[in-house]
């Protein structure tokens, strides 16, 4: 079908954020509204945190999840897909890998959870900025193309991306929002930061750092299980050399936007490399079985399922 901008079906999808905001100023206004909201610090209880190259989908009546969220998006774009009838909501953290396949996977799962009610598929985009290599703009264009080519109509309701998510500091463009949360019950989206990023953060990061390009579904709302893997991973060539270099060297070689990464970026990379070296995939996923977690009824935290 087509992508629908401001209730108007489009014969072509927008190729860049500038043309979107010029043709449809409503997206500038809604982005400004989001940017004006205070940033919330979201704790781990009831949180379903989505890392880079992951997505998750659930329903408003999910007793295990109250907020889906993600952050640390610089050139990445956080994509929220919601069905207006059932309130089924998905959040994915896109970095340019596996974009078209993940768009189809997310919409398919939201539709399957919403088959019994009328409604429309709504999409919200947050993240990316006017980086010097135009990485965010290319990702925006790829997302728009994937949504436009999908068999169902897609309504874009928010786009806080590109120039609208950019602040200039001493001549250097910076992202304004690095992360957002979504209330599962209401669909409200808000600026957010997440001190706790869920179970097995280093294991989950190992997947994309070793070159796995697919965006994975990490949650089953029917069972309430948070599932990791199984997948293969290994330390990238040169990881030992990189670990011996200073932080600036690591930033310049492993980041798409070294000037604007959050302060914990390098520490996270180093910790993930150590994890990969010390915990081979065949030992972590013995018998090629996934690592599963469920919500503890008392603490609200994720605990292992043995």
From TrEMBL:
InterPro entries, per the entry: NTAN1
GO cellular component, one term: nucleus
Any one GO molecular function term: protein-N-terminal asparagine amidohydrolase activity
Pfam families linked: N_Asn_amidohyd
GO terms (BP aspect): ubiquitin-dependent protein catabolic process
PANTHER family, per the entry: N-TERMINAL ASPARAGINE AMIDOHYDROLASE, PROTEIN N-TERMINAL ASPARAGINE AMIDOHYDROLASE
Protein name: Protein N-terminal asparagine amidohydrolase
Organism: Phaedon cochleariae (Mustard beetle)
């Amino acid at each position: 079908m087509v992508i629908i901008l401001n209730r108007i079906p489009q014969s072509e999808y927008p190729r860049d954020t500038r043309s979107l905001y010029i043709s449809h100023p409503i997206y500038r206004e809604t982005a400004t509204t989001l940017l004006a909201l205070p940033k919330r610090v979201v704790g781990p209880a009831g949180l379903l945190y989505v890392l880079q190259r992951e997505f998750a989908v659930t329903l408003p009546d999910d007793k295990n999840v109250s907020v889906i969220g993600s952050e640390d998006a610089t050139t990445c774009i956080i994509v929220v897909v919601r069905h207006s009838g059932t309130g089924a909501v998905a959040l994915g953290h896109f970095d340019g890998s596996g974009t078209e396949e993940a768009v189809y996977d997310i919409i398919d799962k939201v539709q399957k959870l919403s088959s019994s009610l009328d409604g429309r598929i709504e999409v919200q985009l947050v993240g990316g900025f006017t980086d010097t290599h135009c990485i965010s703009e290319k990702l925006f264009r790829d997302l728009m193309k994937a949504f436009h080519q999908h068999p169902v109509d897609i309504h874009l309701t928010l786009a806080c991306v590109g120039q609208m998510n950019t602040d200039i500091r001493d001549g250097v463009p910076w992202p304004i929002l690095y992360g957002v949360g979504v209330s599962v019950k209401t669909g409200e989206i808000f600026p957010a930061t997440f001190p706790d990023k869920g179970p097995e953060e280093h294991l989950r990061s190992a997947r994309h750092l070793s070159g796995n390009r697919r965006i994975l579904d990490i949650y089953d709302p029917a069972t309430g299980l948070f599932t990791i893997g199984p997948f293969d991973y290994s330390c990238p060539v040169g990881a030992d050399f990189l670990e011996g270099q200073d932080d600036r060297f690591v930033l310049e070689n492993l980041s798409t936007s070294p000037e604007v990464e959050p302060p914990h970026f390098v520490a996270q990379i180093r910790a993930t490399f150590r994890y990969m070296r010390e915990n081979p995939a065949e030992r972590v996923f013995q018998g090629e079985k996934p690592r599963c977690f469920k919500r503890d009824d008392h603490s609200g935290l994720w605990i292992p399922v043995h």
